[in-house]
Amino acid sequence: MNRPDPADLSTQVQTGGGASTTEATTAAVPAPAATTGEDAEGAAGGQDQDAAGADGSAAPATVPAPTQTATPGAAPDPGAAAAALALAPKDTAYLTITDWGRIKARLDAEDLTSDSLQTDLSEFWRAVPGSTVLLTDGLLREENSQLSLRYDVTQDDVRWEVRWSVPDQQAAGVALRMRDDLDLAGLRRAVQDEVPGLEGAELMREARVLLRGVSNGDSLGGDQAVVAAVGEGAESELVVPGCLPWPSALGVDATVEDQESVVDGAGDGMEDLLDPKAWSMAFTGRTATVTVVYPEGTDEAEVAADAATRVALAEGWPTTESVGWSDAFGLSPSGPESGYAVDTRGAQPVATFDYRVVNTTAAATVALAGLVPHGVCAEVDWLAEPTGL
Prior knowledge:
The protein is of the alpha+beta class and 389 residues long.
């Protein structure tokens, strides 16, 4: 992959070039799996009533184009994907990547900042939830009013946002890359004042990154399966090392009958299942791509057999919670006839599956809840039979 070396960014951010501002606290941080999107209405129905047009895209926001001058000495932006691999600890359970810059560019709002007219800001944020799948509402957005009035910074000044969750840690890790021409003095004061959501964060001025929860040990960049799962150019992405236990993927209200039905529907293909080393879901506009990464040395026929079975599982996957796979996704009209594509040229073989997003809010819920048939482990963990007691 043509990315900056994650180790370089990790060193740059952790050292900060001697220019960091730190307020160390133990306050909890909202988990990255919090409810996403601003408008959850209609999620269970599988049909969005939003600002998207007939082609699935929202009406572009009209924004001014202010004159911008890059801050001298600012470190080059490595991009959201490279930052995620460099900063998330090796024991991360899952991470999300949100590229606000790409979302703005598609909606013709690439120059939108906290200095923009309020009407333009409101138009953009009305359009976003229906135009793409948001895996976070934005760390700064809940305090946008206070941050704007007192600190001259808002969520609109964020280029990209990475969040990660580590088992047994109450606080979620987060990294926000601010725009190049933002005066960071206000954000520095907001960190010192412990504005809600910024407790325990530190501002790395040279890297222009607001940071919390980086491990001093190894990062995800050393896991080649995860590296293979992280895509390039998506607006938002969920990346999960390993595979999903069946009870988790089926949902908390799944029954033995639900599980039997989906396993029977896949037929003899269940014998072809392999254990994914990692999987991801990437979203741009109303398109979704699931990537499954296989063990090194897995040949093309084995990957194809496994992928075909996962397509069959998705077709019969039950809805056991308020929303399910079928509420969120439909078949992509431009996808391969088989429903999947296989690439075994790299060290880590992968299969990709393209889908159309039917409902952006439901898609975010399904992804973050892990109700994803493509990520299940090879071994079926059978649900307990009800005792009737």
